[in-house]
Amino acid sequence: MIKNVGDVDSVISMQNVGIRYGQGAEVLSDVNLILKRGSFHFLTGKSGAGKTSLLSMMYLSQKASRGIVKIFGRNVSYADRDSLALLRRKIGVVFQDFRLLDHMSSFDNVALPLRVCGMDEREVRKRVTELLRWVELDQKINEPTSTLSGGEKQRVAIARAVINRPEILLADEPTGNVDSDIAHKLMKLFVELNKLGTTVVIATHSERLITDFPYPRLHLQNGGLKIYRPIVEKKIGRGTYD
User: Fold this and answer.
1) Are 62 and 51 in contact (CB under 8 A)?
2) Which of 63, 145, 167, 242 has the highest local Cβ count within 10 Å?
3) Is 70 exceeded by the pLDDT of residue 234?
């Protein structure tokens, strides 16, 4: 997984990356990582290990304090504001705090990325309606998101992140506020999106998800990054990690 940072198949690459806030110690140090196009990884680590910091560099809201970060082959340290905006359009993000527009309906929140891209409104309505039905929110389609429960808001946020089939999907604890049945249904949505070519990174504390969906794991500990690959137990369809 860790190869030359110029690997042409990579969508995200980091070389000797460190990040700190203010004058404090580095939260992450000497991170080396290449995520290939179409890969799927979990991101794990204890609270405070740096998962959100790593994701924030991936979705271009935070710059590394040192090292090289490339997104779609572009060194983001030297990208101007317009270039960064174009790169962000290729990235879907599910935030822990949802970041929905609470005065807008579930439908309009999910439709926003498609409307920004200028999609025909008939196609927008078709896609959004189908997706909200799939995540079991078709009964809440016209309700302001301010009236929804935490789990419902989470599903709206996920639908918004995946509606335009981004090239990269980054999700910070996307199943944290839903029951196990919905969690597995959402994971299947991520898996299907991945099969279409989207590179997926999901930060999670759920050992059950990691076991039931045996993908490689990016694990943060003591400011460093290790990669664990699953050993699939074919008879029961689950995995352990080496």
Assistant:
1) no
2) 145
3) no
